[in-house]
Design a protein that fits this description.
Elements (H helix, E strand, L loop, with lengths): L20 E4 L4 E4 L2 E2 H7 L2 H10 L5 H13 L5 H8 L7 H15 L14 H26 L13 H10 L5 H14 L6 H11 L4 H13 L6 H12 L5 H10 L19 H15 L2 H18 L6 H11 L6 H22 L26
Antiparallel strand pairs: 1-2, 2-3
Helix pairs in contact: 1-8, 2-16, 3-6, 4-5, 4-6, 5-6, 5-10, 6-7, 6-16, 7-8, 8-13, 8-15, 8-16, 9-10, 9-16, 10-16, 11-15, 13-15
This protein binds acetyl coenzyme *A.
């Protein structure tokens, strides 16, 4: 055991195959089911990308109508889910609201808990559960933000598609096209990224033949951390600390002296550039132009160039998405729940892929504790 090579953080370890997405750090590219993600973001509604991740193909016209119809049927925030969120203190992080809500949805799905041996469910049941979570999460995320602001939930609007309705349920006003389009693209960019920490968590849970809801709840927990999804929130905290572009240098001096991690920079897989950043940066630029906020552009550019100069580390997707969500009007604490609403499509695609060719995920460890010893007076059985 002592001679085993330890791969700390599983860095560089290939644990399984996947047909859902391909991350190519060498060419800075990311494909969902073979399609370049910038092309999907430029042309598709998020509903089509959800269908693509689950089924492997973009929907036909009638399939898109079907997914949109089902999504509308399950949009309404349910009373039982709302009550479960209301039990939590207002000071709870909205990621806790979302995690609790998904757990309650799972507990209320009686088909899921009849018998532990049946928990995994059929492919059809799991597709249906995936679809429902996809449809229900916007209402949950919108309510999590509204509750913190002391506002009531807003009923969905049947005349609006996914992205426009999500913004409607959050703000109670009809968003302008430029904002709907920006939001739609951000959802597509966040939807899937191979064996990242939260997706891997979902696959580990699935590999024990647990149910889809348990796997999604675990994935939400993994996403919350600032080294993963929580970084988009953390970027805005950093922007708030710095204040304006002229303070970047001094702030960075202190942060680097204190060995702080600068959130929104660096990536385990991409060592040069994150393939998703150029598309999200364009989204941010459009919002900056729309809302006339050159101050954000200056701070963004100065921090990026100073940090690159000093540490040679590039931004990841969370760097442009943090200020973009801020400009759209979301509270900073809502940013990671937005990531959940998008990534639930990728997680559930991976859960179904894991179920289809399962092997229990159970790695080894190299023991470094004390050697065998014996309790005084105990009979020693070799
Ligand atoms: N700020 C400061 N230093 C950094 C950063 C950063 N953001 N990222 C990497 N480094 C440094 C480390 O301090 C380390 O330096 P050292 O070798 O002198 O000790 C070196 O670069 C390697 O970093 P690791 O953390 O060991 O690399 P790893 O591959 O494990 O890290 C990670 C990837 C966790 C994402 C890291 O870059 C990080 O913490 N970034 C900030 C958090 C973040 O933005 N997360 C979002 C990830 S993307 C996503 O979830 C959409």
């Amino acid at each position: 055991m002592g001679s085993l090579e330890v791969k700390k953080g599983l860095a560089g370890v290939v644990v399984d195959e996947t047909a859902i997405s391909k991350v190519e750090p060498e060419t800075n590219s990311l494909l969902y089911r073979g399609y370049p993600v910038p092309e999907l973001a430029a042309t598709q509604p998020f509903e089509s990308v959800a269908h693509l991740l689950w089924h492997g193909e973009l929907p036909t016209e009638s399939e898109l109508i079907d997914i949109r119809t089902t999504e509308r049927q399950h949009r309404q925030l349910r009373d039982d889910v709302r009550s479960s969120i209301d039990v939590l203190p207002i000071s709870a992080h909205p990621m806790d609201d979302v995690r609790t809500a998904v757990s309650v949805i799972g507990g209320m799905d009686t088909a899921a808990d009849a018998n532990v041996m049946d928990a995994v469910g059929s492919p059809e049941e799991n597709l249906h559960r995936s679809m429902r979570l996809f449809a229900e999460l916007p209402g949950i995320v919108a309510y999590a933000q509204r509750r913190r602001r002391g506002q009531c939930p807003i009923d969905p609007r049947d005349d609006l598609d996914y992205a426009a309705n999500f913004l409607w349920m959050t703000f109670g006003t009809e968003a302008e096209d430029v904002v709907v389009d920006a939001f739609n693209r951000s959802m597509i960019l966040y939807a899937e990224h191979s064996f990242n920490a939260s997706t891997f968590t979902a696959r580990v849970i699935t590999s024990t033949l647990s149910d889809l809801y348990s796997a999604v709840v675990g994935a939400i927990g993994a996403l919350k951390g600032p080294l993963h999804g929580g970084a988009n929130e953390a970027v805005l905290h950093i922007f708030d600390e710095i204040g304006s572009a002229q303070h970047v240098r001094g702030w960075l001096d202190t942060a680097l002296e204190e060995n702080r991690k600068i959130m929104g920079f660096g990536h385990r897989v991409y060592k040069r550039r994150d393939s998703r950043v150029p598309t999200m940066k364009r989204v941010l630029d459009e919002l900056i132009e729309h809302y006339q906020r050159p101050d954000i552009a200056h701070l963004y550019d100065r921090l990026q160039s100073e940090f690159l100069l000093r540490k040679g580390i590039h931004p990841n997707l969370d760097y442009p998405s943090g200020p973009a969500y801020h400009l759209m009007g979301f509270d900073t604490l809502t940013f990671t729940p937005l990531f959940v609403a998008s990534r639930v499509t990728g997680w559930t695609a991976h859960i179904m892929e894991q179920q289809a060719a399962n092997a229990l995920i159970r790695p080894l460890s190299a023991y470094v504790g004390v050697e065998e010893r014996h309790v005084p007076g105990a009979a020693h059985t070799p």
